[in-house]
Amino acid sequence: MESDQIRKIVAERMTAYRKRANLTQAQLAEKLNYSDKSVSKWERGEGLPDLLVLCRLAELYEIPVDEFLHEGSLKRPASVRKRRHWLISLLSIGLVYLIAVLVFYLLTLFGVPNAWMCFICAIPVSAIVAVVFAHVWGGTLLQAIAVSSLVWALAVMIYLFILLFARSVTGNPLLFAVAGGMQILVLLWYLLQYNRKKSSEKGK
Question: In this predicted model, what pLDDT tens digit does every residue of 90-119 receive, in sequence order?
């Protein structure tokens, strides 16, 4: 990539991100402790800001530094992406319970006993959805919380099914002891993953 092309791309990206942030050149210059003439020069492609300025711009717009070298659509700020991820996750979990309501209605309509158990089944299903999204978008802590919720949701569901259909509490303490053991394994596993991540970051 030639220097003229680099200046052009950086100029276009700087202008686009500034406008999306509803900042004037003077306001941006004030935030960067530069003159508005410098900002204007960069946005006209007559010069390139140094790496420190690009890092400060990336921090301001919540984007990676290399975004100023990419053509195409603008990247969403990290805070906006995070809110969007949470919204999608919550909507997906809500969809699980909406399906549970529909199933409950149909079972009640046909006189199926214990139709309310579909809501109990929805708990581990929603936990599975949470686990998937936590591993796609979340960090190690969120992943550990999601998997832990799945472990206990399954334990509660099995307990209620045994209580309802087997009408027995024998073995229930053992069930929760197994769930407790699984919980410890989950915590140890994600602690190991967290330490590996920290070690690899230090290695870089």
Answer: 999 999 999 999 999 999 999 888 889 899
Q: Is 17 exposed, middle or buried (0-12, 13-18, 19+ CB in 10 A)?
A: buried
Q: What angle do CA 139, 145, 146 make, to 5 degrees?
A: 90
| Count: domains in the chain | 2
- For 48, list phi and psi in degrees, rounded to 5: -115, 135
Q: Are 78 and 63 in contact (CB under 8 A)?
A: yes
Q: What is the DSSP letter of 75?
A: P
What CA–CA distances, in Å, run from 1 to 37, 45, 57, 202?
26, 15, 22, 32
Rounded alpha-carbon distances, angstroms, from residue 27 to 16, 32, 68, 75 = 15, 9, 19, 22
Write the Ramachandran bin of 63: left for phi over 0, alpha for psi from -120 to 50, otherwise beta. Answer: beta
Q: Which domain holds residue 65?
A: 3-69
Say yes or no: 167 and 186 in one domain.
yes
Q: Per DSSP, which regions of 25-89 are E strands?
A: none
pLDDT of residue 82: 83
